[in-house]
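explain this:
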Amino acid sequence: MSNRLDRANSELQKCLTEIIQHKMNDPRLDKVISITEVDVSKDFRYCKVKISVLDPKDIEGVTKVLQKSEGFIKRELKEMVDMPFMPKFNFVVDKKSLEILIFLRRLTTMNSADVKKIITSAKKAAIFGHTSPDMDCYGSLFAAKYLCEKLGVEAHIFGINTEHSFMDQIFDYKAIESDFSPESFDLVILVDCNKISRIDEVFAEKVKTCNNILVLDHHSLQSKEENVQYFVDENICSASMLIGNIIRELKIPLNDTVAAYMFTGVVGDTGRFCHTNTDSSVFEFASYLLKYNVDIQTIYDHIYRSKSMGQIKIQKFMLNHFKVVKDHYCYVVISLKDLNRLGGYTEDVKMFFDDLRDVKDFYMAFFCYEVEKGKYLVSCRSRAGHDVCVIATKFGGGGHKCASGFTLYGNKGAIKKQIRKICEEIEE
C-alpha cells in the first residue's frame, strides 16, 4: 500500500471516529466500540470501514444507521480532510474483533461462585504474577492468597525476590517464594496477566506442565491456552479490584493489611485515580477499602515522596539521555552498568515510567532497562488514543492500550537500535 493511501486511511479513521462519537446523536451508535480499519481503494472512489460493536445483535442496526447517514458523514468530512472528492463508504463489522468479543463474553461468563468452586476443589495453590511486578500485580498476588486461605486452601506466592524496591515498605516481600515444585500443587493461579509467557522465565516452563490453572485478570485476552480457566474482565481498572470484588461477592470479610494492598494496587493502575480507566465503580471500591484501616498518607509517602539519592540520579539520567523520534515518540535505555554507576537498582526505574509520557507533545514513551546481562524489559506508556499494547503484543508482551511491556535481548547499543526502529515504524 502506498504512503498516500496509508495517510488517507489513517486520517479518515481519525475523522470518522470523531464524527461518529461526537457529531452523530443517534443512540444506536453508542453500541460502536471503535473503527478498527479504513481501506480506501487506489482510485479513492470506494472506502470500506470496519467497525467493532458491543454486542453481535447490534450489528445490523449500527451498520444501517451509518449507511443511511453517509451523506451527513461526507459533508462533515469535507470540512475535516483535504480530498478531491469523497469516496463511497461501505460500513461493515470487523469479523476478527467480533470473534474476540464473542470469545471474551464466553470467558467472562464465569462468576465468583465458579472461582470459589475451582479454588476449593484444590488443596494447595501456587500464585504467580507477571514479570517485573507493579503495584497492582503485588496487590492482586496478596489478595489472591488471602482469598484462597479464607476458602480453606493453602496458598503460596512465587516470584523473583526483589531487593531495594520502593514498594518494600508496603508489601510483605518475605512472603514471596522462589523455589517452585509443580508436583506439590494441584492449582496454579495467574493474576494480573493471562499468558503463561508473561510470568518470570524461571517459572514459565514448570507452570506449563500443570493441568489446573486459573487466570484472574483485567487485561485484553487475545488467545486461550490449554488447561487454563479464565476469569477476565477488561472493564475493571485493576486485578486488585477484580479479586476484591470476588471477595466481596463471596461475603468474605477483609483485614486491614489486605485492604491496604488492594488499595495500593488500584492507586497504581489508575495513576492515582487520574487514568481513563477510573470510573464511579473505582471510587466506590476505594471507599469500601477505606472502611478498613488503610493509611493513605503512609502509602503515598512510600511510593511518591521517599526518593533516594540513587533514584534522583536515575531520573536525572533519564531526562539527560532520552531520544525523540518523529517529534512524538521517545525512548531511553539504561543498563545495569548505568544503574551501578548511579547507585540505583532495577526496581528504582519503575518510579519514572510515566515521566516522559507526560511531556506535552509525546504520544508514546519507551523505558528500556536491563534486568540481567543482555535482557532488557521495555515499559511502554502512551496517551489516550495511542495503543502501545499493539506494539507490546508483537514482541510477546502485553498489557493495556496506555501501559504495556515486553522484553528485548542484546547489548545496550543493539537495544537502542531496536527501540529506535520500533519508534520509526509506528504509524501515525
